[in-house]
Design brief:
Blueprint (H helix, E strand, L loop, with lengths): L2 E6 H14 L3 E6 L10 H12 L5 E5 L8 H9 L2 E2 L5 H6 L1 H10 L10
Parallel strand pairs: 1-2, 1-3, 3-4
Helix pairs in contact: 2-3
Length: about 120
């Protein structure tokens, strides 16, 4: 049985590239990237998907940072005993928390965009 990855839609394509490069036994379940426009819905969508895929995989993980859920996603993670990516948002995942902090500290008001 593979590892089930509940993924943010904006990260799923990158995860698929890593999967292909290293021939990893993953099944990726992307959620719509537009959920970032309604972060209060992310935890519920992740819960629903984890409930659907739990028995299909030896392990499940969540490829999301907090993404504006203000800890609601961490409650889901704890309830399902799975792991998620570290960080407040995907910029932390891509660049690292310290790099983002340095950018924000040196240039207050910086606004990040994604290409999803």
């Amino acid at each position: 049985m593979s590892i089930g990855v509940v993924a943010c839609g904006s990260l799923a394509v990158h995860i698929a590239s890593i999967q292909e490069k290293y021939a990893l036994d993953l099944t990726i379940y992307p959620l719509p990237p537009l959920l970032h426009n309604s972060p209060m819905k992310i935890a519920g969508e992740v819960t629903s998907l984890l409930n659907d895929i739990k028995g299909k995989h030896r392990k499940c993980v969540v490829a999301y940072a907090d993404c504006g859920t203000y800890g609601a996603l961490d409650t889901v993670i704890a309830t399902h005993n799975v792991s998620r990516l570290v960080g407040n948002h995907c910029y932390d995942v891509f660049a690292g928390e310290m790099e983002i902090k340095n950018i924000m500290d040196s240039t207050p008001g910086t606004y990040f965009l994604t290409d999803f």
